[in-house]
Amino acid sequence: MKLILSYCASVILVLSLLVNAALALDPASIAGETQANTLCPVSNKAVNPAITVVYEGRTWAFAEEACKTQWEKARAESLYQQLGGKAAIDAAVEAFYVKVLADERVKHFFDDVSMEKQRRKQKEFLSAALGGPLPWTGKDMRKAHAGMEIKEEHFNAIAENLVATLKDLKISDEMIGKVIAVVATTKDDVLNRPKKAE
Ligand code: HEM
C-alpha cells in the first residue's frame, strides 16, 4: 500500500513538473496573456495561429495577413486608441461617475444601481463604441434605459459631465467633440423616443 501511495505521489510530481515546464515555454502564459481567439475578428473564419498580434496584453489571431492589417488599421484610427486605450477609458469612466453621483440633476437615477457593475458596463460600452477591440455584449441602449423617464435635460447633464471629465483629463476639444458625437448616437434610444429620420 505504502509503495502504491509513494508511486502515485511520484507520478503526480512528475506530471506537475511537466505542466509547469509546458506553461513556462508558452510565451502567452509568460506575458500573462489570455488564450487567442479561434475565429478571426475580421472575416469570422477559422484563424491561422501563426498570424497574431498582441494588443493590450491579449493575443489576437487572424485568418489572413490582410485581416490583421485591416484590424490594426482600425485600431490605429480609433478614438479608443487615440484617447489612450483601455487605461484611459477606464480612468475616464471612474472619474465620470464621481461627477455624475455628485450631480443633483441626475444622481437619483443611480440610487438603486450597483455602481461597480455600472462602471464596468460603461467601460465596456464606451470602449466598443469608440472603436476598441472587444464588442459590446450588454443590452441595447433602448432596453437598458426603458421606463426610466430620462428627459433631454438629463441626457444633456450626463453629456456635460462626460465633457468635464475629458477636459480634466486634458483631452483636446477636437477629440471631445468626436467622443460626444459618438455618445449622441445613443440619444434617441436612451430617451426612448422614435429614431429621427436621416
Ligand atoms: C449619454 C449616453 C448614455 C450611455 C452611453 C449610457 C450607457 C449605459 C450602459 C452601457 C448601461 C448598462 C447597460 C447594461 O446593463 O447592459 C446603462 C445603464 C444605466 N443608465 Fe445609461 N447611458 C447613457 C445615458 C444615461 C442617462 C442620461 C441616464 C440618466 C440620467 C442613465 C442612467 C442609467 C441607469 C440608471 C442605468 C442602470 C440600469 C440598471 O442597471 O438598472 N444613462 N447606461
Automatic annotation (TrEMBL):
Signal peptide: 1-24
Pfam families to which the protein is assigned, alphabetical: Bac_globin
Keyword Phosphoprotein: no
Residues annotated for heme binding in this entry: 145
Cofactor(s) recorded in Swiss-Prot or TrEMBL: heme
GO function terms (MF aspect): heme binding; metal ion binding; oxygen binding
Annotated SUPFAM superfamilies: Globin-like (SSF46458)
CDD domains xref list: TrHb1_N (cd00454)
Gene Ontology BP terms: oxygen transport
Family annotation (Gene3D superfamilies): Globins
Keywords: Heme, Iron, Metal-binding, Signal, Transport
Protein name: Group 1 truncated hemoglobin
Protein source organism: Brevifollis gellanilyticus
